[in-house]
Amino acid sequence: MSVSAHCLLCEKYDRWIEIDVRDEQNQSFKGLKATLKDETGKVKTVTLKDGPTLVQGFAVGEVTLTIENQPWLKTAQNREKLKEGEASKVPAYTDKFIGHKDVKRKHVKLTTGDLCQIDPEQPLPEGHKRGQAQPARLLTDESYVIEIKGYQLNILRIGVFFDGTSNNTFNHLIGKDGIETFLEQCAAPEEREALRKQCEAGDVPLKVASQANDITNIGKAHDLYIRRNKGALSVAVYIDGIGTEDGDGDTGAGQGADTGSTSSLAKVEKACKTKIVEELKLQLGPTLNTLDCIHKINFDVFGFSRGASAARQFVNMLDQQANHLLADAIGNESTIKLKAGFDWANREDCRIKFVGLFDTVCTAMFNKRNVTLAPDCAERVVHLIAADEWRYFFALTRITDDVAGNQIAPNFTEVLIPGSHSDVGGGYYSRWSLSNPNSDPAITEQVSIKVCRSEASAMTYDPKDSSAYRRARQYAEEQVVKGWGNEVVDLPNVASAPVRNKVSLRVRSSRHPKTDKMSVEVEVLLNRVVEGEYSRIPLHMMVAAAQDVGVPFITWKPDERALMLESGAPKLPRTDLAKLDMLWVNAAKERGVSKDLTKQLDAEAYRQLRFEYLHHSADTGLVNRPHHHRGKEARHIYTNQEGG
Question: What positions does the domain T6SS Phospholipase effector Tle1-like catalytic occupy (predicted)?
């Protein structure tokens, strides 16, 4: 039916139409403003009700119905389609009531596109475009129940894993071959003597630090994160550690000063600009083309060391921020379709679900990093920190607002556990990581931990009477009490190698020919085979805490070589790691607390744990030199608010 342009003046506007717009779940679109226009151009704008909306004053004939694009698309694309096997309740609802003036209501199926005022800038998915349902012809003096086709509500979950300084899973695989070759040489009779000192010292001949490390807890957590499974859209994204590049040499600027193209900030930018989009396309592949659109993106973010700094920076870049590199990267990728009006700044659309941190280190030589975490930045934050770490350049940045750890957000958890930095975050080799049964050289720790010096008259002077020797001896005995060795021994001469499992003292003395003074230098050294399974306990703690709030990790499998706690040593250690694991695995689940698990060990148990499993990360070199507080080796600590 059409209206002649010559009869507009005589047209009567006494007709009506009744509309009731519903989704497939029979829920209304109450509150949206709808525009109705008849064939004469008469326009009426109404607010949709939770039920029939009567609109009067039209000429007889066809009426077009549209809704303003932005609110319509945002609302319609959040309405879920019927699940397989479900039947729509709209037909029964249509028949249940009588329309205006007792007319029988008509059930009409339309698409989102049918009611758009203009074609959307981002094309609608197939099946939702204009004209892809039954013909959208509405007439006056009729009552319509309009059923809008629903959407598959797709929630994308992305796990982002920032590895630590000098840690790189790809480079580890390269270096592992070199370590296996070294172990073969150490075991071969014809080469053993030539390499004896090197093998006994655990001096693995790898020049690239990231090739000398085992896979960290970040690399393992990445492997444990569930990819797409049973319809769920989840993707795991690994970001190589600060100071490293896949298959390339390490960079001093990144490792030492957190600057340049391999800095923590550069790794965040790499994740946002390229890596996340690459992994979405790689892991979801053709699935992306089958999705109506992505309605929400949830993130789980993990980091170790300066990678934990990167993780915190990543959270602050995304949380409640509309304009950032990841929004640009996804917006420019045509295969990744977000719902209309997707708002990166709205936590209903983009939310950080879980943040898992291993021993945050933020040392940046020139630029302060944005690592302060707001209490509501994520639904859950867990931080595991190292009790036996005190290197100068490895200051800790807590997630508590005080150094003591008493002021903590109700959804945060921080747990202090025994071990050095990489005992908590992983990276030390375990026998289970190697195929060669002669693996002692790969897990041997030989390190100079202190040098004491003094000068005195050389007339009647024994170096062991010197101040340097007394101070070194006292320090060495303190280390035995702590468990870093089982007794103090004096080495016979300066060429003697440190004694296995002892705290060794190497004395050097020299007489000044012109001053009649003697200089004495006493070096304190350790040489131990340190089993490498302990770091699996903090990994298990983190995975358990994450699973407790729905993070998609696979079921923990304690018999897998990468997760095994039983030592592969010929003589089993006295410390029962499985018992410790059972005791501590749930420690990070409790919210709003800062815990110290070292207090759960008596002095002898802690000493034995150090002796068999914990590494002494500080040494006398420039990079790993210790930090001192009031004359004692102690870690420098920044609060969450200070940042570090």
Answer: 339-430
Q: Where are the beta strands (DSSP E) in 428-576?
A: 444-457, 488-490, 503-512, 517-529
Cβ pair 235, 284 in contact under 8 A: yes
Task: Choose the weakest-confidence range: 333-347, 473-487, 574-588, 594-608.
Answer: 333-347
Are the CB atoms for 468 and 453 separated by under 8 Å? yes
What distance in Å separates the CA atoms of residue 265 and residue 8, rounded to the nearest whole number? 67
List the single range of 180-194, 345-359, 520-534 with lowest mean pLDDT: 180-194
Beta strand segments in 81-215, E? 106-110, 138-139, 143-148, 154-162
DSSP code for 232:
B
Residue type, 235: V
Coil, helix or strand for 401? Answer: coil
| DSSP track, 54-89 | EEEEE-SSEEEEEE-HHHHHHHHTTSBPPPTT---S
293-323 as b/e, with b when 16 or more CB fall inside 10 Å? Answer: bbbbbbbbbbbbbbbbbbbbbbbbbbbbeee
Hey, where are the domains in the chain? 5-151, 156-168+213-430+532-638, 445-529
pTM of this prediction exceeds 0.85: yes
Count of other CB atoms within 10 angstroms of residue 475: 18
